[in-house]
Amino acid sequence: MFVAVSIIVAVAETVGVVQFQIGPGKVLLQPMVWALLIAAAWGLSARYLPAVAQIGPGLQTYAGQLLNAGLLLFVIKMAFTVGGALPEVQKAGWALIFQELGHTFGTLVLGLPIALLLGVKREAVGATFSIGREGNMVIIGEKYGMNSAEGRGVLAEYITGTVLGALFIALLAGFVASLHIFDPRSLAMGAGVGSGSMMAAAIGTINGHNPPEMAKELIAIASAANLMTAVLGFYFALFFSLPVCSWLYDRLEPRLGRFSNFKSEDLGPSIAGAGETPKHGAFGFSDSLLAWITIASGVLIGNSLTYKVPLLQTCTGLLVVLAVVLLVDVLARVLSKVPHILILVAVTTVLGIPGLPPFSDAMIAAVDKLNFLAFTTPVLTLAGFSVAKDLPIFRKLSWRIVVVSLTAAAGTFLGATLIAEYFHR
Asked: Which range in 99-103, 104-108, 239-243, 397-401 is most confidently predicted, on average pLDDT?
């Protein structure tokens, strides 16, 4: 698995970014997309490959477990990024803080009911409690596991957002802006959905419907909103959005689910659940260590090939990230009754605050040399292998899960815009 991931990351980063125009929007295919597609194709073609190159259903299930552990490195990178940006966050104001209510309100009010009306079951929880970015996958992976129905849901949301999100949000934001019913600043704040590519696409079309002299102000507002979503969004999703979404699902599904003949509960188990099973036994510390090393190696490849960061600087940043994840693992074993994710959040929050621990500034500077997108390529490679085993399930969900994912994205944009409009009035 380590060798396969390393090969795919190297190929994907070598291909690089490919972009093309579709109507008024522009589609950017990042290396992570190529990694996802190559890994999925590799997994699907297992029966046709020599034994030494096969990544069969058992290893595909194992890839999902590695993904659970490897995603923890994302949270650590995010925490150090947030810590370095605290001065900007403090300037954001109350409107940006309350926008998280708008994000949650929008995804739950629009996305969840649509999913249930279409007959989607527990996948709906993973797909609609957020717009399914990296931190949200960590939350689902920790609570349910990436091989669960909720894991399939958040993966589908992530893939849909990665492939179609920027184009969709650009078209939606442009259409809403053309109606001139919202303050442009409210639309700019709504554009900060927590994804850099989606924010850039949305603010680009919003600026196109407003005077050129407003462009700088609107970009600044959108950037601050996106930053605030990255700061508060993870914690808000962990402690509020996911519990509320699960609670609403239990109460709404019996009423709304009966309107559809399609039942995702009848999709059956993953391929690995019905056939080959992993041979490595229980997932233990050695497996977590493999996951961390695999992700770190992928970051090393991407940071060097695509972002041209000197090898020594990349290695220093990775050593900091690996040291933190090892510290969290030790604390989780000592504090066995405390959820792992809470320990991770507490440790990374403290270490990520500039000047709080005496060495935090040096740690933040070292981790800052690691490009965030370099993490996405190895993670999406593991996701691609994990998705391969569930492709029949995704095929049966087909357009339904895409509709649900895009509805959740629309909900988070419109919800945050409505909250911002209240403050601007």
From this structure: 239-243
Alpha carbon separation from 416 to 182, 188, 387 (Å, rounded) = 12, 10, 31
Contact 146, 174 (CB under 8 A): no
Q: What predicted TM-score, i.e. pTM, was given to this entire model?
A: 0.73
Give the C-alpha separation, 62 to 298, whole Å.
Answer: 18
Helix (H) / strand (E) containing 83: helix 72-84
pLDDT tens readout for residues 309-323: 999 999 999 999 999
Closest CA to 141 of 165, 161, 119, 158: 158
Q: How far is CA 412 from CA 79, 132, 159, 395, in A?
A: 23, 11, 17, 26
What is d(CA 281, CA 277) in angstroms, rounded to the nearest whole number? 9
For residue 206, give every residue at least 6 positions away whose Cβ sits within 8 Å of its Cβ, in sequence order, or none.
173, 174, 177, 184, 187, 188, 191, 218, 222
Number of Cβ within 10 Å of residue 175's Cβ equals 12
Length of the chain: 425
Q: Output the CA torsion sign for 7, 10, 14, 19.
A: positive
Of the candidates 5, 383, 416, which has an alpha carbon nearest to the alpha carbon of residue 161?
Answer: 383
In tens, the pLDDT along 211-221 reads 888 887 888 78
Displacement of CA 41 from its chain's centroid (Å): 21
What is the DSSP track for 125-146? HHHHSS---HHHHHHHHHHT-T
**For helices 94-106 and 215-236, angle between their N-to-C axes, nearest 10 degrees:** 60
Tell me whether residue 246 is exposed, middle or buried, using C-beta atoms within 10 angstroms of its C-beta: 0 to 12, 13 to 18, 19 or more.
middle
Is the pLDDT at 271 greater than 50, yes or no?
no
Closest by CA position to 292, among listed 269, 319, 310, 256: 319
3-state SS assignment for residue 200:
helix
Residue pair 384/35 in contact (Cβ under 8 Å)? The answer is: yes
pLDDT tens-digit map of 383-408 = 888 877 777 666 766 788 888 888 98
CA nearest to 312, candidates 366, 360, 362: 366
